Amino acid sequence: MIESDGLPEIWRETVRPEWCDYNNHLNMSFYVLIFDHATDVFHANLGLDKTYRVKANCSTFAVETHTNYLAEMHDGDEVSVTTQLLDFDQKRLHYFHRMYHAEKRFLAATTEVMTVHVDLGERKVTPMAEDILAKVEALFQDHRSLPPPDLAGRHMGIVRK
Fold this sequence. Notes:
CATH class: Alpha Beta
Number of strands: 6
CATH topology: Thiol Ester Dehydrase, Chain A
Radius of gyration: 17 Å
Structural class: alpha+beta
Number of domains: 1
Distance between the termini: 32 Å
Shape: globular
CATH superfamily: Hotdog Thioesterase
């Protein structure tokens, strides 16, 4: 099935043989690694890059994630990741990554992420700089008309009858 979320690709990567496990598919930890690579690009696009970390002595920490594994990926498959900003405030970013098979375009996995902005010297959550917030606000305005992802905001549990 071909999927499309209307967002630009922010990361593309090829599954490596050492990332595959005894089930002959991409191990769950490497889905997370690929999403982490996409997060780095997403943050850099907002100005939250290495230069910012050094200059401001601030960074972002993930405080919550929820990953859904929807389809197998295998050695040599190329993946494509998009990111949708769902919400934000002065100290937090809430966003949603989708991982697609780059050629066949099926949705392979998603992850929902909440990050906080941290002063690395104090090790405390602190507001983002105004120039960063302006970029976040602009992106949020671009994304606010998009439908919310079906898999966002879910919780995990066994339904008992």
